[in-house]
Amino acid sequence: MIKGFLKKIIPRFFLEKFWHYPKGVLAFLIYGKPAKNLKIIGVAGTKGKTTTCHLIAHILEKSKKKVAMISTASLKIGENEELNHIKMTTPSPFFLQKFIKEAVKKGCQYLVLEVSSHALSQYRISGISFSAVVFTNLTPDHLEYHQNKKEYQEVHFKMISRSLKCLILNKDDLSLEKILFSQIKNLKEIITFGIKKDADVLAEDIFLTEKGTLFKIKTEKESISVNLHLLGKFNVYNALAATAVSLSQKIDLLKIKEALEDFKGVPGRIEIIESKENFKVIVDYAHSPESLKNLFEAIKPIKKGKVITIFGACGERDKTKRPLMGEIIDKNSDCFIATNDDPYSENPEKIAEELISGVKTKKLNENFFKILDRREAIKKGISLAKKDDLVLVLGKGAEQWQVFKGKKIPWDDRKIVKEILNHIV
Fold first, then answer.
1. What CATH number did the domain enclosing 395 receive?
2. pTM score, whole prediction
3. Are residues 237 and 278 in the same domain?
4. Cys bridge to 309: 117, 237, 333, 369, which one at CB 3.0-4.6 A?
5. Are strands 39-44 and 132-135 parallel, antiparallel or unpaired?
6. Whole-angstrom Cα distance, residue 187 to residue 166?
């Protein structure tokens, strides 16, 4: 409570310069500057960071590299991998530097690091020089924290230093054009990827199937067909980003193809849980208008029956997006159950009302329900499902906690779903 109070009365720039920055530098020094002993690949952007991190780490490992990774979903050092239990995409500087030191001690050659805009603003990555940086996209986000779109985008420039060897950019994202033109003269190498334009790493002939995505990766020198076992066109972008990073590390395109086709997915990212009653439950992290649209588009090849969506907007995030998310779910679902996500310090009832203000086509207690208890909401959604239906449990993915006004409750949507399914007679 004291921490929250101080955040409200102390200007953000003051906290960043006189609290976060010293912490970042101190952590780097206390742990002996461990980052200098690793090749560090930074993955930043609005969407796709987590899956891109996991794809990069998988390709590197298939190329006989020993890899550490920090993502929203997982923490990994070599063969030891666990779910991210710290409720942060990029951890505090002391956790991060200790983690890097341990990775070096265990003989890792690479660290794949998912970098949030908050981490950049708060100097959590102080002392880290990147071998390669990939920007998946930079559409405006977290405007409840950042002053405006410009500040959100420009804070990512902190990752571009003189020591950076390669910058990888999504050429289809117009938000990245400024970076491309302003930074190109200072960089040794830039690799672009995309599906719409003449990118360095280009995807062609994309075909969405029930089991994944077929497409062709084309570079200046060669092209190769890939059968990716991930749903959705957005995952083609993630695969292209990972391919571009891997090419920058001199990994052969054929080895990249083999690793992409061998990749099994990320915890809590379109994670499918089968039921004995022949309907599917999908757990996903989608929690913004764009990610919700992408998800509904991605599930079209496997959609046979009704779509039942369980979703709650996160607290202390951009409130203007809540009605829009309600509208998107309303349009793309046969049944919508509004529930809690992480309300943090906000009133859960108020969050839910702002979310459901976007619902226009459904009738309360018929094909639309408000159940703030998330477990009960998931139970309700599963109870409504019939053969061939899809039950979507969205917003949290594989997160291990639910947070109410500073109180953290152990949580995992996937475990809750399996517990409920196991009790269905």
1. 3.90.190.20
2. 0.94
3. no
4. 333
5. parallel
6. 7
